[in-house]
Amino acid sequence: GDSVTQMEGPVTLSEEAFLTINCTYTATGYPSLFWYVQYPGEGLQLLLKATKADDKGSNKGFEATYRKETTSFHLEKGSVQVSDSAVYFCALLNSGNTPLVFGKGTRLSVIA
Amino acid sequence: SQTIHQWPATLVQPVGSPLSLECTVEGTSNPNLYWYRQAAGRGLQLLFYSVGIGQISSEVPQNLSASRPQDRQFILSSKKLLLSDSGFYLCAWSLSGEYGYTFGSGTRLTVV
Predict the structure, then answer these.
(1) By the 8 A CB rule, do B30 and B47 touch?
(2) Distance, in angstroms, between A2 CA and closest chain B CA?
(3) pLDDT tens digit sequence for A79-105
(4) Long-range contacts of residues B64-69, Cβ cutoff 8 Å, at least 24 apart
(5) Distance between B18 CA and the closest CA of chain A, angstroms
(6) Exposed (0-12), middle (13-18) or buried (19+): which is A85, by Cβ within 10 Å?
(7) B104 vs A43, A103, A104: nearest CB
(8) B32, B101, B106: residue with CB nearest A97
(9) Closest by alpha carbon to A99, among B13, B91, B41, B49?
(10) Nearest CA in chain B to A95
């Protein structure tokens, strides 16, 4: 079945450091890919998405490019802030009504 | 605009007691609805999803059940809670999954 694998956390970075959170997927067909963010004590928020190969999703300084050849959707940000501390989930969707498949989440802590 | 409401925000229940968590969506019709659980330090586990009134798909066999008595209402229930039912419960909705899910703010359930 479809699956998402993302790097184990926690990831601890200093403010203004470069962030990469790796995400790879296994799926038949051409899934849509997503990154969600969960701030402490809250629900999940959609951060960005890409629906086809070579698409780049971006939001709030975060970017991820849909790489079909490497089945990856790595999340990047050039300069993290303390306010970016959260848990980040990579997810895929393979067809309209089937549920999203989530990775296990990566906790990011940014220290001043 | 569409909104999702989930309550209560926090709940402490004794082992063996019943449970009812409610989720409602406003501003849309015939949404797909989802219940997820997030146990401490773990990823998201899909519990139930529904593509229409009275249509419930169960992903994980356990002592929880779900119902959809109205188009925009999704209820998670249990007749007798177990300690292992503790966790953060998230409701979500979507129209077409390619646009992602919108999550509620979650219910933190502690079974004591």
Answers:
(1) no
(2) 14
(3) 999 999 999 999 999 875 678 899 999
(4) B64/B19, B66/B35, B68/B33
(5) 24
(6) middle
(7) A43
(8) B32
(9) B49
(10) B97
Each of the 112 residues of chain B gets a pLDDT tens digit; together they read 889 999 999 999 999 999 999 999 999 999 999 999 988 767 888 999 999 998 999 887 688 999 999 999 999 999 999 999 999 999 999 987 667 899 999 999 999 9
In this complex, the residue of B43, B92, B97 whose CB is nearest that of residue A96 is B97
d(CA B102, CA A106): 20
A42 to chain B: which residues are within 8 Å by CB? 105-106
Strands (DSSP E) contained in B18-80 are 19-26, 32-38, 44-52, 55-58, 64-70, 73-78
Tell me whether B40 touches chain A (CB under 8 Å): no
Q: Token pair of B97, please? A: 């999954």
Which chain A residues are within 8 Å of B59, Cβ to Cβ? Answer: 99
What are A102's strand-pairing partners?
Answer: A91
Nearest-by-CA chain A residue for B90: A43
Task: Give the strand pairing for B87-94 and A62-65.
Answer: unpaired
Question: How far is Cα A31 from Cα B5, in angstroms, rounded to an integer?
Answer: 29
